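Fold these two proteins, one after the other.
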Amino acid sequence: MNALRKITSYDAVAFYWCHGFTQIPSMAATSRMISRLGDGGLYLTLGIMLALFEPLDGEAFLLAGLQAFAVELPLYLILKNTIKRDRPCYRFDNFNAFIVPSDKFSFPSGHAAAAFVFATVFSHFYPSMAELSYSVAVLIGLSRVMLGVHYPTDIVAGAALGVSCATFTLSLAGF
């Protein structure tokens, strides 16, 4: 239990350090915009557009993405509702998040998990876009910390979940 307390302590320090950047004018607004990229609509829209207009890998990309999300989402929900870690905006006194979270618990980050599922599947089919897709995934994760709704370890866990589910799906389905 001592190790868990240490991790939680470091996580709180890292959270406050990251969240301190929101004192920079427009950083909260920028974080909100970046976070919205991870709400899911962009992933589905891009997948459908590629399936319709990119004849080489578009349909396979959409199918692989849907399968990866079908693996990731239930695991995410089980973890979140089993671990039940309070969000920082509910844990710390005199602290308000910049957005209203969709649920009470923070671990793992669903936005980070989804962003890394997408980045991993997208990079598999379009390797030249790997750097960009993973960079966007990292920014989505960081934006959730900046907005005050996640700790850094929530993002790391979400990223690990997303990459693992996507990699598992891609290898199992033979993509």
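Now the second one:
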Amino acid sequence: MKYHLSNMLCLDIYLSSLTNDEYKKIEHKILPSNPKSVPLLSWDIYAEDYYKKLIEGKKTIEKKEVFQLAKKFNWANDLSSDFSKNDYEALIITDINQKIIWVNEGFSKMTGYSKKFAINKTPKFLQGNNTSLETKNRLRNKLLKQEPFKEIIVNYKKDKTPYHCEVKIIPLYNKQTTHFIAFEKQVI
């Protein structure tokens, strides 16, 4: 039996308006006889929820990887708090000299550069003609102060497309700063 999408959406709306007693009276007519093959009555709701869970799962894995690095380098930061306060697409961890030691999958998605390409480079490879000298100087000075900060910089994707990148950089430390973590997202 084929259903038109608008009919399925109407059915969703109709069913959501029923009381529990009204629904129980008709549920045998709408539930499938084979419970292993349930028709999807509202694809958009399912897809949205599935996408959110997928992103949450990836971010959980990324956090675990960062926490493993924190254990390895004995960082004293409250990384749980840092993750809860900062929204991001890309994560980058550099050493004290700004050489990249780790990036997440979101970095590759946002920039077009592979993880393998980025490792042991400084983030300067993302800069280009429209990257402001003033912004680069501010970044450099803020990094020297080894205090958390936020900045917006024009970076370039692998295909040379410029984009505005909001960067929140937090020094990672044990007795002294040893690394930096950057929470990055593309902004308009």
